[in-house]
Amino acid sequence: MDTTPPPRTRPAPRTARTLAAVLGWSAGAALLAGCGAPAPRQDAARNAAAAFERALTASDYAGACELLAPATREQLEQEEKRSCAEALSGEDLPRGGPVRGTEVYGRQAMLRLTDDTLFLSQFHGGWKVVAAGCTPRPDRPYQCTLKGE
After folding, report:
1. Which of the residue ranges 27-36, 45-54, 125-134 would you say has the lowest mean pLDDT?
2. What CA–CA distance (Å, rounded) separates 48 from 63?
3. Is residue 68 domain-resident?
4. The sheet that has 117-123: what strands, in order across it?
5. 21, 70, 98, 134: which has the highest count of C-beta atoms within 10 A?
6. Burial class of 87 by CB neighbour count within 10 A (0 to 12, 13 to 18, 19+)
């Protein structure tokens, strides 16, 4: 009988786990979000989303890039082989409009805007956009135009 322990697997990088959690946002997490997410955290997530939307509306793509999560920014630059600002200017992201709903759970947030859904994660420097241009799909994760892996 072989008593060799199974090989240890390394956990996924934090950004990958974060993105998987965000894009796989479940109804259960959404329900838990209403259980005590402090108003200041919700406000901070809303403010970050609003700043991102303002930057896009003003065509301030460099400013919008500063509000992207590092993995999202890197993914965009790698896929487009251009700077973040240049690549973001070519993305067909909807201008989301005002925030209609905010759900915060742990270090993750989902913000439903009038014409978009944004996913954010909390970093040391504040809330950053992990995914944008997201549309819901029944019984499946959201489909997002802009996201990191």
Report:
1. 27-36
2. 12
3. yes
4. 99-105, 108-113, 117-123, 126-137, 140-147
5. 134
6. buried
pLDDT of residue 38: 79
Tally of domains in the chain? 1
Report pLDDT digits (tens) over 33-63.
Answer: 444 457 889 999 999 999 999 999 999 999 9
Rounded Cα–Cα distance for residues 86 and 8 (Å): 41
Read off the CATH number of the domain in which 48 is found.
3.10.450
The angle subtended at Cα 107 by Cα 70 and Cα 83, nearest 5°, is: 15
Determine the Cα–Cα distance for residues 28 and 112; give it in Å rounded to an integer.
17
Place of tokens 């259980």: 35
Structure tokens at 110: 């989902």
Structure tokens belonging to residue 118: 């944004």
